[in-house]
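dude i think i finally got it to work??
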Amino acid sequence: MKYVPNLKTKYNEEIVPTLMKEFGYKSVMQAPRLEKIVINQGVGSAIQDKKILEFSLNEITAITGQKAVVVSNFKLRKGMPIGVKVTLRKERMYEFLERLICSALPRIRDFKGINSKLDGKGNYTLGLEEQIIFPEIVMDSVHKIMGMNITFVTSANTDEEGFALLREFGLPFKKN
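look at this
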């Protein structure tokens, strides 16, 4: 029997029927789905200290369970590393989302929920200030507290559909 992440099962069995009812879709294929999760960490200080980039690479790899890659922006200086990113799809994406919702976000001090502003196309970017909220990070090995952006790319056509999808997955949005 093949392993299926809990959130993928929840999506197929609970979220799709809920969204079909809420938006009046005729087919399950019309229901928006989570396509990928992209985690970025800008490491501007890596210009002075190359070790910071290495630490960042190792931390993002540990958090996501997938090898992170170094990003360099050609507009600044060709080949100059400025960040680290990883793109999660399929099973790894659902596993990461579950760990984020169940163990990382509740560890944020004075947590009252996340903002509910989407990008206009049904995608959502969550900015975190500290990488230490993830249980995979060992506090003794942290060299510098750094933030990261987590972008949820959906197939939704509108912010309303994207918000409904992410809300059903269990992202703790603030109540307005």
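The radius of gyration is 17 Å.
im so relieved honestly
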